[in-house]
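Why do we care about 3D structure at all? Because function follows from shape, and shape follows, mostly, from sequence. That is the central idea of this module. The next example makes it concrete: a single protein chain, its amino acid sequence, and then its structure expressed as tokens.
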Amino acid sequence: MARLSTFVHVHVGGESKVYGPDDVIPDGIAALITNPKVWAEAPTEGAPATSVPATGVAGAPPRAGAGSGAAVWLAYAVSLGIEVPEKASKKDILDLVDAFVAPAAAPAETPAAENSIPAKDADVATWRAYADAQGFETDDDVSVAEIIATLDANSTATE
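And the structure:
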């Protein structure tokens, strides 16, 4: 396991965090520490992580408590190749990581989407999947109301 020989400051997304010899260094943060002289035991590429957190991703930082700040999650997201908006909150970053790790099932993998009319208050992704299954193309920025209006205008499927 990677271990520091001294204290280091890691700056990510406008926040600074200090890590020391006794801290567990998340993979995303370890990738940002580029000075080889600060490592007592350097991180190894492809080494198995010591734990698998709630995200199901080995090496992800904890979601709460010590070492769970926005800067740590930003570093982790960046290490996965996720583009994070400049002013993203910790919740925004967690949502991006969750979506990256477990992408939503494609409509073809959800047979009910073809036959079941979504509830009027269902989210836009559910309505888009239904509309696509019915042969209607939808834009990425379409609203639920627009989808329902299009379906209503072309069929009686939503009544």
